[in-house]
Amino acid sequence: MCFRGFVFGLLLLGLLPSPSRAEDLPLPAGVVNVASPDFGDRSSPGSDYGMANVKPIEVARDGQQAEEIRIVRPRQELRLSRRNEARFQVRLGQVNVVYFWLEAPPVHGQWRLRIAVVYPDNAREMIFDSNLKGDVINYAWAPAGAVLEFYMSSVEQTFKLSKHFLLTVSPVNFVTWHNFLPVPNRTLWD
């Protein structure tokens, strides 16, 4: 009896949609994800994922070539620590505003994001501090060439599923692509 329940549970898990990897989601032509391949692979305990990218996010033009829009999108879902927090940094290029959106499971909970500019002397200036909703594109003004520190937290304590999220950071607002949005029209947890 117990074995039959175990086998039935495994079959049921095989039928449920599993979260896809973020790198499986297609991006429009000319858009490049510059997130480091190991970004999101937390090997050390704690809440700090470190620097997300080496190449800065920006709209880059290289000579006669077409423009290249560089975004940071984790190649795997990020998780909050046991203290319900996660931190990472993003390096900016020649942009004055960044757009970002949250993809998270559709469960009850409240996500809070704080963004600070990290100066060379390690001083920090808060430029964004607000609750986030999924499927909404947010923005913040930032100095060009800055390093931004993202601090994500959640007040949800009961669901482990609510500790998984993706946060995409872009130098352009992707609403301009009406038919091809790499935003959560197709979330990982549908």
User: Approximately how much beta-strand content do the residues carry?
Assistant: 25-35%
> Got a strand count?
12
Please, how many domains?
A: 1
CATH class: Mainly Beta
Q: Strand order within the widest sheet?
A: 2-6-11-8-9
Q: What's the number of helices?
A: 1
Using the coordinates shown, work out and report the CATH topology: Jelly Rolls
Low-confidence stretches: 6-22, 177-190
Instruction: Please state the second-level CATH architecture.
Output: Sandwich
Class by alpha and beta content: mainly beta
Task: Assign a percent range to the helix content.
Answer: under 10%
**Biggest sheet overview:** 5 strands, mixed
What does this structure look like?
This protein has a single domain (20-176), classed as Jelly Rolls, CATH 2.60.120.1050. The protein is built from 1 helix and 12 strands; from the N terminus they run αββββββββββββ. It has one helix at 2-15, and strands spanning 31-33, 48-51, 59-60, 68-71, 78-79, 85-91, 97-103, 111-118, 124-132, 137-141, 147-154, 164-170. The chain is globular.
Task: Give the secondary structure arrangement, pairings included.
Elements: H1 2-15, E1 31-33, E2 48-51, E3 59-60, E4 68-71, E5 78-79, E6 85-91, E7 97-103, E8 111-118, E9 124-132, E10 137-141, E11 147-154, E12 164-170
Parallel strand pairs: 1-4, 2-6
Antiparallel strand pairs: 3-4, 5-12, 6-11, 7-10, 7-12, 8-9, 8-11
